[in-house]
Amino acid sequence: MTEGEELTIDDEIVARARIHAREVIDEHDLGLALDALEWRVSARARRRAGLCRWHADREVATIVLARRAYERYEWAEFAAVVRHELVHAWEFQRFGESGHGSRFRELAATLEAPRHCRSFAEPRYVLRCRERGCTWRATRHRASKPVRAPDGYRCGDCGGALEVEHTDSGRTWESASGFGGAKAALGDEW
Ligand SMILES: [Zn+2]
Ligand SMILES: [Zn+2]
């Protein structure tokens, strides 16, 4: 795929998401300021279909949508992701904070948005052997001990050292301090 084609897909995602957002806001008289809403497409996100970030200084909410989710889901499913993130944006704009509590659930139910942020089937972490020629790997959905401190473990096949990849960002680390660094660097994208 060329860069030009990728741009077109991202433009299409943002355009469709925007139109859908406007419909939802109008239909439910949401009182959500569309001009205080920014849209981004993540080409790298592999786990979360969407997320919403709040910039308190500018009072702007940024909704980030995963290109892979758009490519994989039917539109109805992707539109539900957009509505989920709109609920976050609404909470941010109104209350300066957002979670998945009762206030969130109430509006999510009204908008027929899923309660939980959609995630792909991919595991959150992949453990891999660093030894050349060794293909051992294991997947983890949680930050288990080998994920947090791979330097304390060895490959089950060849005894080689391990590395861990955070699948959503592609970041890798080989030690407990590397884990801490990656986690701190990713912030709310973790
Ligand atoms: Zn959410
Ligand atoms: Zn190995």
Helix/strand-derived category reads: alpha+beta
Quickly count the helices: 6
Content of β-strand: 15-25%
CATH 4th-level superfamily of the largest domain: Metalloproteases ("zincins"), catalytic domain
Low-confidence stretches: none
Spatial shape: elongated
Number of domains: 2
Structure ligands: zinc ion
Distance between the termini: 28 Å
Largest sheet: 4 strands, antiparallel
Q: Which percent range fits the helix content?
A: 40-55%
GO biological process, one term: response to stress
Organism: Natronococcus pandeyae
Domain SprT-like: 17-165
Protein name: SprT domain-containing protein
Detailed description of the structure:
The chain is α+β, with helices and mostly antiparallel strands and 190 residues long. It has two domains: 3-110, Metalloproteases ("zincins"), catalytic domain (Zincin-like, 2-Layer Sandwich), CATH 3.30.2010.10; 125-189, no CATH class. Helices cover 40% and strands 19% of the residues. It has six helices and seven strands, in the order αβββαααββαββα. It has helices spanning 3-27, 67-72, 75-95, 102-110, 145-148, 176-186, and strands spanning 37-42, 50-55, 60-66, 125-129, 137-140, 162-166, 171-173. The protein has a four-stranded antiparallel β-sheet. α1 (3-27) crosses α3 (75-95) and α3 packs across α4 (102-110). It starts with a helix and ends with a helix. The mean pLDDT is 90. One zinc ion binds at residues 84, 88, 100, 117.
